[in-house]
Amino acid sequence: QPALTQPPSASGTPGQTVTISCSGSTSNIGDNNVNWYQVVPGAAPKLLIYTNNHRPSGVPGRFSASRSGTSASLAISGLQSEDEADYYCAAWDDVVNGLVFGGGTRLTVL
Amino acid sequence: EVQLLQSGGDLVQPGGSLRLSCVASGFDFQNFPVTWVRQAPGKGLEWVTSISAKGNGYYADSVKGRFTISRDNAENTVFLQMNSLRPEDSATYYCAKDYVTVLPVGILDYWGQGTLVTVSS
Questions:
Q1: How far is CA A86 from CA A71, A90, B7, B44, in A?
Q2: What are B2-58's pLDDT values in tens digits?
Q3: Cβ–Cβ contact A101 with B under 8 A
Q4: CB contact under 8 A, B104 and A97
């Protein structure tokens, strides 16, 4: 069972805004920064958001994220067909003394 | 350009061993932690192990005592030695570089291409 909880699926139509939640505990999200990864089937994961709300160079501004308490969320605005992928939240866990991931959310663009 | 080139994946019998390699280029390798993450078919991402810049290893409970991570800074290479392999270790294994120096924090900004490990008789 993943340490971080995400909804298994999300969907939206082009142009819409979709939000994906990520729930953890005091030992991970409550005490450490959250990062988000995008995984297109057949490709290596890609860092999408780091340190709660920072976008690496090349990631469109349509992607934003936030963290509050033991939860975090990723928002994708102006949804595009190319956004169809699996999204994972992750954070360092002080009890595990390692990285924990959410179970992943499959985003479908209708 | 930062690159991580992986090798070593194979089909192995339960109880067997395998060593994965991850050769890095394009950055000051000796100063950055490296992490291995795996993804079983149809499953999510799972952290396996990380190594700090100084060579300290961190392990998931599922692999502790069976897997060993190491690094050779002279060769810009990280190794994952996997012993006592089980069918549930079957997955695509990715190595990834951490964004920050010295200690791993899980900001994995560059990833290898992945290598498939299949444990089956």
A1: 19, 13, 25, 9
A2: 999 999 999 999 999 999 999 999 999 999 999 999 999 999 999 999 999 999 999
A3: yes
A4: no
